[in-house]
Structures are given as structure tokens and as C-alpha cells.
Write a structure and sequence with these properties.
CATH superfamily of one domain: OPCA outer membrane adhesin/invasin
Strand order of the largest sheet: 1-4-5-8-9-10-11-12-13-14
Shape: elongated
Radius of gyration: 41 Å
Strand content: over 45%
Largest sheet: 10 strands, antiparallel, barrel
Helix content: under 10%
CATH architecture of one domain: Beta Barrel
Structural class: mainly beta
Distance between the termini: 110 Å
Order of helices and strands: HHEEEEEEEEEEEEEE
Length: 310
């Protein structure tokens, strides 16, 4: 029995030894190969470029309100259009010295260096002349030798998106080149009269025409149009609070309407206020397709005062 028990114990130990997992061995670590061993050059990643934040200068943030005044030197022209049936001359140079044009502007900064602006101006003048030939204005005939009074009023409303085009990014640069995307509304009203020709009888009763209507020599009309205008604007900050602005834009439809305007100014900033001095020019031509049209170019020194929110 003792011999049998010893045999069974040996068999059990042999079975346990066969089922036991083999001991794990750690493979030897290999040292990384060096460029000298691989024969390839060492490539270092380039350093990150320094980042400079865009600096917004005065006038490039918040919103502003401005008023402008300039005294135009020009006399618009009234003339017949392509569809006129008049047999007399219609060419008249409007008389009078234009009064100081009154204008205003509201703007708001968009993004870092863009802006949205709406501006407006109006001017008017009146004067007299004696015609040397028969003239027809707004279908009213004036015989040669008549003293004719003229008056006109010009209005312009412009919506402009000033988009920074170069440089980009601006970083700390002081020069700006912007493209100007605009819509303009132009209105020109003109009027004529013969004030020395009587329109009433000696007793004060109105003189009537063949149709029984009171006689009058007054004639007036308005021409207006909408037009897109495209242009460029330059701003150069020669000092933080001193800026030079130059802007020009225009658009034309051949044989129809034409509009262009330009301005240049030096602007001095003090706290929330800015004073600008320079010059301005504005040209318009209403559509020549109708029986009558008007055209002219206004140019004059200009002064502007703006208030900025920041």
C-alpha cells in the first residue's frame, strides 16, 4: 500500500508541473537608433511665428456722429434730353452762388477695421439772367429778352461699407487701404420764373390763359436716381491722433446717369472729438433718356467735426 501511495503522489506532482505556466522573459531593450546610425539628417520643427495682435487706432471702434460744411463753387446745367420734342434751345446754366452745403454722417465700426457709414448733404442757390434767344424749360417757353430767375437744390444720401483690403493682418501698421461699396440717392430740383412779366390785371385780378387758368410763368421739376458706386479709400495715421484720409468712388451708365465724388482731409483727434479740414468734389448727371436732364460738378474746401463714442 505504501508503494502505491508514493506512486500516486509522484503522478500528481508530474501533472501539476506540466500545467504550470512557463515563466515570462523580458526581451532585451534596444536603444533608439541615432542619425549617425541611420545615415539621415536631424530635422528640427520650425519655431512658432510670433503673434502680434491687431491694433485698432482712434476711429476704428465704437460709433461716431459728424457734421460737415463746404461752400461749393459751381453752376449746374439744365438741358434737353434724348426724348425732347422742343424746337427751341433748352441749355441753361443755373445762376447764383451756392449756399454753404450742410451735411452729416453717422458711422459704426464693424469687425476690427471695417466700417458702415451713412452720409447726407444738400445745397441750393438762386439767381437771375436775361436770355438772348427763345428758351424752353420744363415745357415753359420764355421769349428772348426775358429776365428769368432760376433756383435749384441738390441732395445726396450715401450708404457706404468700408472694407479693409490691405494690409492684412494689420497688426501695428498705420496704413489702411479700403475698398468702398456704396449705394447713393441723388435728387436735383430746378425751378424757373419770369418775375417781371405781369400775371395780374391793374385791378389785381389774375390774367387767365385760353383755357381760363391763371397765367403763370413758373416751371419746376425734379430728377432723381439710385446708383451703386465703387471706390477706394486710404487712411494713414501719421500719429496716433492725426490721420490723413483720401476717398474716391463713382459709377456710370453710358448715356444715362453718372456719379462720382472724392474727398481728402487731415483729421486731428482730441479725446472724443475730431476736427477735419480738406476739400471735396461731387459730380452728378441725371438720366439723359427723358426730355430734360441736369448735370454739374461741385467742388469746395470742407470742414468736418466728429464725435466718437470711444
Amino acid at each position: 500500500m505504501k508503494t502505491i501511495a508514493i506512486g500516486l503522489l509522484c503522478c500528481c506532482l508530474a501533472a501539476v508541473a506540466q500545467n504550470a505556466p512557463a515563466p515570462q522573459t523580458t526581451p532585451p531593450q534596444q536603444e533608439p537608433s541615432t542619425p549617425a546610425q541611420t545615415g539621415q539628417p536631424t530635422i528640427q520643427p520650425p519655431p512658432e511665428l510670433p503673434k502680434y495682435p491687431d491694433v485698432r487706432l482712434p476711429g476704428e471702434y465704437g460709433f461716431w456722429i459728424g457734421i460737415q460744411a463746404f461752400e461749393p463753387r459751381s453752376q449746374p446745367i439744365f438741358d434737353k434730353g434724348h426724348n425732347s420734342t422742343d424746337t427751341t434751345s433748352d441749355y441753361v446754366r443755373m445762376q447764383g452762388t451756392p449756399k454753404a452745403a450742410e451735411g452729416g454722417e453717422i458711422g459704426i465700426a464693424l469687425g476690427l477695421h471695417n466700417a458702415l457709414r451713412i452720409s447726407y448733404f444738400t445745397t441750393r442757390a438762386a439767381g437771375d439772367f436775361t436770355n438772348t434767344q427763345d428758351l424752353t424749360m420744363w415745357s415753359q417757353l420764355y421769349a428772348a429778352g426775358t429776365l428769368i430767375s432760376t433756383d435749384y437744390r441738390i441732395q445726396d444720401i450715401k450708404l457706404s461699407f468700408d472694407y479693409l483690403t490691405w494690409p492684412y493682418p494689420v497688426e501695428s501698421r498705420r496704413f489702411r487701404l479700403k475698398t468702398l461699396w456704396q449705394i447713393q440717392y441723388v435728387s436735383v430740383k430746378s425751378g424757373f420764373d419770369a418775375p417781371l412779366i405781369p400775371t395780374t390785371n391793374p385791378d389785381g385780378t389774375p390774367i387767365v390763359d385760353a383755357n381760363g387758368n391763371p397765367l403763370t410763368y413758373m416751371a419746376s421739376g425734379t430728377r432723381w436716381y439710385f446708383t451703386p458706386t465703387l471706390g477706394l479709400g486710404i487712411s494713414d495715421y501719421i500719429a496716433r491722433n492725426v490721420r490723413i484720409d483720401v476717398n474716391a468712388s463713382g459709377f456710370t451708365i453710358p448715356h444715362h446717369t453718372t456719379t462720382w465724388d472724392a474727398d481728402a482731409s487731415v483729421n486731428f483727434r482730441l479725446s472724443h472729438f475730431e476736427i477735419g479740414v480738406g476739400a471735396r468734389a461731387f459730380h452728378f448727371k441725371t438720366s439723359t433718356d427723358g426730355p430734360y436732364y441736369l448735370r454739374g460738378t461741385l467742388y469746395a474746401p470742407a470742414a468736418t467735426i466728429r464725435w466718437y463714442s470711444h
